[in-house]
Amino acid sequence: MSGGYEPIFDMPEAPPAPPRRGFASEINMKGLIQKGTSFALFAVSILLVVWAFGILEKGLLVVYDPELTERHSQFKELSGFDNVTTSGAGVDVCIVDTGIDLHHPDLAHVELAGWIDFINDRPDPYDDQGHGTAMAGILVAKNLLRGIAPNVNLHIAKAIEKTGSGTDSDIAAAVDWCADSGVDIISLSLGGGQGIDFIFIETDELEGAVDQAINQGIFVVAAAGNDGGPDDDGDVASPGSVDDVICVGAIDTDGSIWSNSSVGSNGWQLIPFKIARDDPDKKPELVAPGEKLAILNAQIDGTNSLYAWGSGTSGATVWVSGAIAHLLEHRPDLAHNGSSGGSRDTVDNVKEWIQNSVVPQEGQTEHDDYYGYGRLRVDALIATAG
Q: 6-385 architecture in CATH?
């Protein structure tokens, strides 16, 4: 059985200026930021495992920095978001995370389509940790860092505690709630240890909930993890490891892989037993913007900073969730309640289109255990879908 789950990203030491963290940076507490604690919503990580952000080259907390908009625009261009006319309109997306801070001025316009709190059972939206606010901002923010799919119908399930960790059962319940709410996409910027089939039965509730959602034709996108490099545990995190989940690694603005993006293990394995993965389900399936992302900083703990920097596969996950929202606006028949949707076959078809529309590295001719099939291009994905 898997352990706890946490968000995914890391933070460097904060500058002596504004207090607090940012996306994957100090999203938790002032002290965490100052100490540069790794922020990843992954089960095996120490505290926070919201894998979307990792090591930053400069301070996390900023009042304003022209580079924020510059890098945000560069990532949009790299991924084709500057070349589409869709905006995610009519598509329902559910983010399972630490909540959302609707008091942030760049999110003040948001009217949630759904909210639930599995941690404290509070009726009104809030975020006592910050990671969820950063994730939601990538999708729907206005003003300085305009979201990549600003017109989606956004549902938020808080299943991650203030400490940045969550339980298998809470997150599984959140996934079930998203599915029961009729969403089209479930975005999971988190990860944990894979469920172990100890002889006969699988005990991972989250993987089971994810499987049930996919069977209904709901697209589930999850982070690959932030333990790449010499400390890599050998495979992507759960539930990104589930066959038909779309698992996402992280890249920089030049398309190069982020050094902490987790590697996939796609061959046959005896201990623990695992059969080889086949196309288009090799992990990760693709990579997307994730290194030194410009993100919203939740307005909690007395912070004066609206924005921050963060690196990790959590943010990359949301970029792919946003891309699928564009696809479903373009092809509403592919939604779970559409004429061509409602089954796992639809998810399989879209995964094949992802495989055929991404941009591989120079010289890459097949799946790469770090880079997947290639980097996200939302315009090419839409064109491939017809």
A: 3-Layer(aba) Sandwich (3.40)
